[in-house]
Specification:
Chain B: Keywords: Signal. Chain B: GO terms for molecular function: carbohydrate binding. Chain B: It is found in: Cell envelope. The complex is a heterodimer of chains A (337) and B (357). Chain A has 337 residues and is mostly helical. Chain A has a single domain, classed as ABC transporter involved in vitamin B12 uptake, BtuC. In chain A, 77% of the residues lie in helices and 0% in strands. Chain B is of the alpha/beta class and 357 residues long. Chain B is 38% helix and 17% strand. Chain B is built from 10 helices and 14 strands. In chain B, the strands form 4 sheets. A 6-stranded parallel sheet of chain B has the order 2-1-3-4-5-13, with helices on both faces. In chain B, strands 7-6-8-9 form a 4-stranded parallel sheet, sandwiched between helices. In chain B, strand 11 and strand 12 form a beta hairpin. Classes of the chains: A mainly alpha (337), B alpha/beta (357). Chains A and B meet through helix 3, helix 5, helix 7, helix 8 and helix 9 of A and helix 1, helix 3 and helix 4 of B.
Chain lengths: 337, 357
């Protein structure tokens, strides 16, 4: 156990020596500067708004990080969210109780994830193609389930809970879900053999397979969890906006992937850390929130987000190429002597 | 070790489920009572109160860079200028249900006096609009209403009944009183669109319209390209289609552009609600004989004055209260806090050049 802890510490140290730590520092800097320079940013109410805005991206990013670390991707999450929202609206109209609808939606999400997992691992299809397919498929099903209507008459004790705060203070209720889930995912990724096996799969799936890691089974379950979380977020989304709609969450998958990549996870797998991803999510949301308070237009927000993402991919690459150049030169100099 | 993987995964899946299940009795549609309405300020209206100056009035249309809402808010800018207030325009890039909520939250943080909103979804904006009202901000809905309990007044461009009747009347004229017609709408949840389509269906059910057949309603999501494709799809699926009625400016312009450049020109009529500047060329080239609209700039203008009247205490949103809206003269608040602008204008080749919006 102590050995494991030592390993984890080393592991984390190594990981945090890279882009992840830069992004975490940058996020803290943005939060501090915005709180000091924008009069309405650092208030309790704004904190609530900020948390509610980043909630869906934050939750979906947790399993997405696992999947991208193994070198795969899941682009169907937003459509799974929408389908869960549709199912929720449909069942509510049918007169089911909300307490039974919520687990049904999460299980439905898990089943949709299982289909992704089966197509990717069972049939060995590329996950990019599979999940682009199910992105369209699940969104289409969402419209089949709920059609063009919206269902809005959800009970206030639920909708009010999602948008509310603990005892009317500044801590949003949804943090009760976000924090434990983030901790669970973080511990699994960074402090268990299972988490380490994900990096092994991402670095070299074949080698991982030969060293006894069950690659296919692992990936399959990651998709199931990703679907279940998307189903849960579909429920939260529906309650937050008191509106079950087939088009809920459209486009969210790209925001999630953007946040994960910004957080230092390599799209090729094998690299990245959960703290980095959490920082990436907070950074994007905080920038949007701060710029909006400054009346920056939505178009400009997109430009900032896009530029940041390009930089986040570019900078580590530039840094590593400078380093390898410098090392090559050193070797050459050594050879010349 | 492998077994532990599975146990971990199962455990985490199970804990997710547990998190999802609330620990209380069954709440269903039938036994849940919605108590989520904001407490109305119990102020009484004083029609002689002085209009305040320096009011911060923010406009939040369905989305920015939509030609129609650009004209609407230009009227708002004019009104806020006359009122010596601070005008602000914010909004999302896409007209989705949830995208407006963050903007409302921002306006609350900025402590605006009035929010003038065209809701993408009447319910999705409700909780945050009520938070705004609790923070002392007056909420005016215009163009597309928010749920009644989350706004003070609603500026209705025309009565739903009037618009629906006028759309069917124009469609019937174009079709010569009989044949297949189709509707090209905006988003499936647009409050105003759906209300007009309902009235159209009621009108079409009347005996004098028995020969008109509504074959399909399609949605272009107020997106030019999608509307264009939907118009194309309609004509491919229904070769006998006589008229496309589009109650949205984006839709009617896209449909007219498609028909004017295809061999359906002159065979298929296009009518609905459009902007004269966007429709001018299609009226001149004969694709479109007649379409209708109210003056959108007047809606934004009236909304600005209604917001100022609310913030100054001249009205509170109760039926029968009166206020004066600058050049548009006097208005009375109707049932449910509705303020109706007036009847729509019909545009034809004869009068279209008198309008520039």
């Amino acid at each position: 156990m102590s050995e494991l802890a030592g390993d984890t510490k080393r592991d984390l140290k190594r990981r945090l020596a890279g882009w992840d730590s830069i992004i975490i520092l940058l996020t803290v800097a943005v939060l501090v500067v915005a709180s000091l320079s924008i009069s309405n940013f650092g208030t309790g109410r704004n904190f609530t708004f900020l948390v509610l805005d980043l909630m869906p991206i934050m939750l979906v990013a947790l399993p997405m990080t696992f999947i991208i670390v193994t070198g795969e991707i899941d682009l169907s999450v937003a459509s799974t969210l929408g389908l869960a929202s549709s199912i929720m609206g449909y069942l509510w109209n049918q007169g089911l109780s909300i307490e039974s609808i919520i687990p049904i939606c999460i299980v439905a999400g898990a089943l949709l994830g299982a289909l992704n997992g089966f197509l990717v691992t069972g049939l060995g299809l590329p996950s990019l193609a599979v999940t682009i397919g199910t992105l369209a498929l699940y969104r289409g099903l969402a419209f089949v389930v709920l059609g063009d209507s919206a269902v809005a008459d959800f009970p206030f004790n639920y909708t009010g809970w999602v948008t509310g705060t603990l005892g009317g203070g500044v801590i949003p209720n949804v943090l009760i879900l976000i924090v434990p889930l983030a901790v669970i995912f973080g511990v699994i990724l960074h402090a268990t053999p299972f988490g380490r096996s994900l990096y092994a799969i991402g670095a070299n799936a074949q080698a991982a397979h030969f060293s006894g890691i069950r690659v296919a089974r692992t990936k399959f379950w990651l998709y199931v969890v990703s679907g279940a979380v998307a189903g849960l977020v579909g429920v939260l989304w529906t309650l937050r906006y008191s509106s079950a709609r087939a088009d809920n969450g459209a486009g969210l998958e790209l925001a999630v992937v953007a946040a994960v990549l910004l957080g230092g996870v390599s799209i090729f797998g094998g690299k990245g850390s959960l703290p980095g991803v959490l920082a990436g999510v907070v950074l994007l949301a905080a920038l949007q929130n701060a710029l909006r308070l400054q009346d920056v237009s939505g178009q400009a927000l997109n430009i900032v987000t896009g530029a940041l993402l390009v930089l986040s991919v570019l900078l580590p690459n530039i840094a590593s190429s400078i380093r390898s150049n410098w090392q090559r030169r050193k070797l050459r100099r050594a050879a010349a002597v | 070790m492998l077994r532990s993987h599975r146990r971990l995964l199962c455990a985490s899946a199970a804990s997710l489920l547990v998190l999802g299940i609330a620990a209380c009795g069954g709440t269903t549609k039938d036994n849940s009572s919605d108590s989520g309405t904001a407490a109305q300020a119990g102020a009484s209206a004083d029609p002689n109160a002085k209009l305040k100056e320096g009011l911060k009035i923010a406009y939040l249309p369905k989305q920015l860079n939509n030609p129609y809402s650009d004209v609407e808010v230009s009227g708002g800018k004019e009104a806020v200028g006359e009122l010596k207030g601070e005008y602000k325009l914010v909004g999302p890039n896409d007209a989705s249900a949830s995208s407006q909520v963050s903007y409302i939250n921002t306006l609350i943080q900025q402590q605006q006096d009035v929010i003038v909103i065209a809701a993408n979804d009447p319910n999705a904006v409700c909780p945050s609009l009520n938070q705004a009202r609790q923070a002392g901000i007056n909420v005016v809905a215009f163009d597309s209403d928010a749920a009644k309990e989350c706004r003070d007044v609603f500026i209705n461009q025309a009565t739903t009944q009037g618009i629906g009747e006028s759309l069917v009347k124009m469609a019937s004229e174009m079709a010569g009183g009989e044949g297949e017609i189709a509707i090209l709408s905006a988003t499936p949840n647009a409050t105003n669109q759906n209300a007009w389509i309902e009235v159209m269906k009621t009108e079409l059910a009347k005996p004098e319209n028995a020969k008109l057949k509504l074959v399909k309603t399609v949605y272009g999501n107020d997106d030019d390209q999608k509307s264009f494709q939907e118009a194309q799809g309609l004509l491919q699926s229904y070769p006998n289609l006589k008229v496309i009625v589009s109650p949205t400016t984006v839709g009617i312009a896209a449909a007219a552009r498609y028909v004017s450049g295809s061999n359906y020109k002159g065979k298929v009529g296009i009518t609905g609600l459009g902007l004269p500047n966007q429709m001018r060329e299609y009226v001149k080239d004969g694709t479109v004989k007649k379409f209708a609209l109210w003056n959108p700039a007047d809606i934004g203008y009236l909304a600005g004055y209604a917001g100022a009247a609310l913030a100054s205490g001249q009205i509170t949103g109760k039926e029968g209260e009166k206020f004066t809206a600058g050049k548009l003269k006097d208005y009375t608040v109707g049932a449910d806090g509705e303020i109706v602008l007036g009847p729509p204008t019909e545009f034809t080749a004869a009068n279209i050049d008198q309008f520039n919006f």
